[in-house]
């Protein structure tokens, strides 16, 4: 590796964990801000995997790399991965091995002055541990379509995921009405109901099921009956994938013979509704289209603000922090706080209150 | 019922079978053309169901009914249904009953001079039989997202269904690339592969599986390996829901314990690909969003042309015909021919040739 | 008029001033919340015009009126108007007349218990004056694509207007790059630069001109030269319609011979840039498509929250207030404060800072 | 330049004239098909400009160059230009110079076996003349948003341009209805009315003005009055930019003081309608967003079929031909015929008939 750019700093950036819309806009903002400072930016490939391989896998990022259409694209030009905690890395022989020193070595090989990690709580926990052990400066940018990261009002990728889910409801409504059906839409959300809640309100749902609120089929059926009584012949139901079956288990356990996964909680709920109401019911599982969509304007705005601020934190020598959105602006918080604090749907928050005001049932 | 409009004709219109995008644009065009002739249009509710009920369920359609946003909406303002061949109608006690006379009676009660039926081959067969038995004039407008109706190049709803599938591929591509995944998209198409073929080409698929071309997993795996060899780290696979398993059965039989349906052929293919290639594979089943979307400009154009021509056929006293699209314009054909002639993907047609030219594999 | 609904209240709702996306979602939320209370909702047509006419122009709004597709549509089902301050109403003979008593009379004739006005600062000033004079309870819901209303972080319609402008930039970028052009996009914003600022950041603009920051052509030209120096062959420029010419006047005065309006400030800036840089320049004036688009998910969320809260204010007997968005939730403020307080772009706010961090030039 | 690839052919490809959606999909298809033959593809930059410069400006195109998102993007990765007939090339000193030999020299320098030119009639005329003079094999792929190229049913870029115009009408309709306005939309179309006609039908226009049909303001005003009489309070008017003023001149001559262009025919028509009907009228000039949009599925399909067939023509040694769309498939025609034959709107074609059936006025 050649000597670091003496005229300025050399910083690394990587994307880690599940991809989402807006990652490229963060990368672009980081490159623009760092270039403005006269720094060099190295984009590390495949999250920490790029630092594990030899030679280290990276690409130099300059203004030309991030021009034009790039910020408008979903995914991440750097690649990402969910595989492998480097402190207990799964080896081909089935054992787990601590490979953290290799990653720290990869970081050193690039001659970096600091690292920007774009990730969620899991990625931050690993990156923070690596930074502590390796003694290198690190700053985090929060991204997750689930929006369950603590200490930030919103994470990159959430707004777009909601928009894709709302668009699906916009499309299911006319076909539901034409056929007098109950349409069930299963949306993403590993542990929290944020996508389901926002999409359900904006998409005109009658029922929203989220893991934060226990439901009963009787309650859902009663709501669907009240919709019928009002003279309407269809209903829209949004279910977060994080919702459990009434038996308290995830749907995969129930439906899978062995390791195979067919269907999801949406299918389970759809069947229960059909049984309880006699309604013609159809289920749509939205899946990965929620991740790869062109980022919404708001995701691009937030991503851009985050990227600029992350570089500024490095310029100011303020490390181990996560940039965050609060009250219309960018702040930063200790990354350890963000890792520890989980954000599920607030039951007395504005959105739940709005949903109840719209006579949306949570099945409770 | 009051006497028919002596100043002109009174015609009925109904939508039958599965809904799709563009039905409202047909209805609007019919109302505009008939109003131009000074005729009256009655919209019958829920396909032939509206003629079965007493009082007959219908609404008068005038220019005000079809103004503004209506043509832009998916679904059908008249409602539709897949239920019930009136010649063998399923009764609550489980028996089948010939209720065709009731429907013909409903038609007579409205004092109609002719009926426009918007439907697919199944609906046309029933409507034609009713028209023959009842001795009333009937004209058909073809609609089906599957585009498998004979004697017309294209049916209403197909273009939009393709567009929704392409949009899904546009969204799956960046997330596939970010994670080095094989993304499988299952699209609609009851018996024919038209949606899969067009969407696969326009959406940049590497593999397209359609029922018209037998596949092997080895062949699919070889294609995915050749993509890897070219230096690309992801692949897109489109599967028509009409594709059978290698065992020659529909996937429902295999995956269902009893009558329940979990998953589809996409899940089956995804699992086989993962097993054969070791690739990380994800499956998306697009489902009903393909039906309810806002109609594409082309679907609105075709629907409008069909609606106008259907009314003109009545004006000219030319009945038992289906309007059709051929070589940039509207023609009409005997409806019996359309019912008899099924249109699957032509293996030596322009689209298959184009797909092969793009090195897309059909798994053969 | 029949007697008021004794079982509950009867409230009126109207939309006033320029239309925007999300108005129907407010109306829907009001009807849902009020119906939940057992109240009756009357929708007044064409803003205060409906109260001016005899018979008073209104429609009863129940759940059936707001079902289905309605919340997804742009515009307002009630109609709206910019015409006519009722305290100085333009009469056919050219004189101005105080017709406020007629409007108050219209309100009384409907037997209303309270009025919800959806509008901007101008509409609120008039409605508040009417409410004071007429002694009737009133609550305001803020809407304006310009987002320049004080005391609320965001108004209904803004998010969608930004989204439409960003989409235009997404489309102009590839054609700009293909032809090596400077593309100028003029966006709405009567007096403030909010749309231009947010759209410019999210849409990848190189230059953003807003009325809050004086510009010089030299500075813009220098930015475009620096883009060229970086190796990029095109540039995107966003101009708020509120920007003045360098001579300090609105562009209409300059370009219009008499009362006719051809072109706008975008044309002016485009010509100046072409002259100063020699670049091939093209101008797009986005216009009214920013108003009528399908509301974005965020606009629907905010609109829904506002509608519910507005009804709750009436239920609680808290009048002369405007609902507002603050820090992720709904609050309410005295409507007089909202009328008095104007919100232009904060020069030290997060968005301006982000834009500067991205090396976007404001022409200063 | 190194020796040509002996294992196969080396072909060049360039895009020429105004850009549009779908060009990248043609390029991708050419690369895929040629790579399948074992050939090499060189992409020439900026149309014929790349062959004029020394060193010749080009990039090698392989499968990696055209992977992933590229086919989904508007514009052309090769760049294009409208400048400069090489047989009469505008020199800096204001004279015109025959530089055709330089371009032929550039072609030779690359060691090409054939050239694929993607363009319109103007580009084809020049390319054909160059190919004749230089004695090199050439094949043309038709692209133009205007769809006015003879001998092909459709050209690349048209479907997307129509879709963008329809989307604009979808957005103008609600705001028109809310404010009781007449909305005028000016769409592209240099000499023919194809975009206006198709977009007007699919977008629900009441009036469509195209250069092929003379109009009178009286007739337009009568149509708007009949809309009012039917109880509707708004109207949509689509105007092709190719429409002339009533004085028979283009609007630029009228509105421009000198060489500057402010406004267009839309503004002229809007003003005339306002004067004749007293209606509140607003004008939107759609402009360049019609070119740069993400290509529609149909444009990608046609582009793909064209690209594959163009390579096949070279493989078969059939030159001086243009690929074309006819009756659901790809054919090819002598390029001289395509250059000579201009395609304007057929007055007795299916679309005009459909428009009249929908009671759309052409102002005649």
Automatic annotation (TrEMBL), chains A, B, C, D:
Q: What is the scientific name of the source organism?
A: Azospirillum lipoferum
> May I have one GO cellular component term?
6-phosphofructokinase complex
Tell me which residues bind substrate. Answer: 144-146, 181, 188-190, 241, 282, 288-291
The encoding gene is pfkA
Q: Which residues bind ATP?
A: 18, 83-84, 120-123
**Single Gene Ontology BP term?**
canonical glycolysis
Residues that, per the record, bind Mg(2+)? 121
Q: Which residues form the Phosphofructokinase domain?
A: 10-314
Spell out the protein name for this chain. Answer: ATP-dependent 6-phosphofructokinase
Could you give a GO molecular-function term held by this entry? Answer: ATP binding
Q: List locations, semicolon-separated.
A: Cytoplasm
Q: Pathway, according to UniProt?
A: Carbohydrate degradation; glycolysis; D-glyceraldehyde 3-phosphate and glycerone phosphate from D-glucose: step 3/4
Reaction(s) the record says it catalyses: beta-D-fructose 6-phosphate + ATP = beta-D-fructose 1,6-bisphosphate + ADP + H(+)
Q: Which cofactor does it need?
A: Mg(2+)
């Amino acid at each position: 590796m050649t000597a670091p750019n003496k005229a300025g700093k050399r910083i690394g950036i990587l994307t880690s964990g599940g991809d989402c819309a807006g990652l490229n806009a963060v990368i672009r903002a980081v490159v623009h801000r760092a270039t403005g400072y006269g720094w060099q930016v190295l984009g590390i490939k495949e999250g920490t995997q790029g630092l594990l391989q030899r030679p280290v896998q990276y690409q130099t990022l300059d203004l030309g790399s991030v021009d034009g259409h790039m910020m408008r694209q979903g995914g991440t030009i750097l690649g990402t991965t969910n595989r492998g905690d480097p402190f207990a890395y799964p080896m081909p022989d089935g054992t787990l091995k601590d490979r953290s020193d290799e990653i720290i070595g990869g970081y050193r090989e690039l001659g970096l002055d600091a690292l920007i990690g774009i990730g969620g709580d899991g990625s931050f926990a690993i990156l923070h541990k690596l930074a502590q052990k390796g003694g290198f400066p690190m700053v985090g940018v929060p991204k997750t379509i689930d929006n369950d990261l603590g200490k930030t009002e919103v994470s990159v990728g959430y707004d777009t995921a909601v928009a894709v889910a709302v668009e699906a409801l916009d499309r299911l409504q006319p076909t539901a009405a034409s056929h007098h059906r109950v349409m069930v839409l299963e949306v993403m959300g590993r542990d929290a109901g944020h996508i389901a809640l926002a999409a359900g309100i904006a998409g005109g749902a009658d029922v929203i099921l989220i893991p934060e609120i226990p439901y009963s089929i009787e309650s859902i059926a009663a709501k669907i009956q009240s919709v019928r009584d009002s003279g309407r012949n269809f209903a829209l139901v949004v279910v977060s994938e994080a919702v459990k079956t009434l038996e308290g288990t995830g749907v995969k356990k129930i439906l899978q013979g062995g390791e195979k996964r067919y269907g999801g909680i949406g299918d389970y709920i759809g069947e229960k509704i059909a049984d309880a109401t006699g309604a013609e019911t159809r289920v749509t599982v939205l899946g990965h289209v929620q991740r790869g969509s062109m980022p919404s304007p708001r995701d691009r705005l937030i991503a851009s603000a985050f990227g600029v601020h992350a570089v500024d934190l490095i310029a100011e020598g303020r490390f181990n922090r996560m940039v965050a959105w609060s009250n219309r602006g960018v702040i930063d918080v200790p990354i350890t706080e963000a890792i520890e604090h989980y954000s599920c749907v607030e039951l007395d928050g504005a959105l739940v209150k709005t949903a109840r005001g719209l006579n949306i049932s949570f099945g409770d």
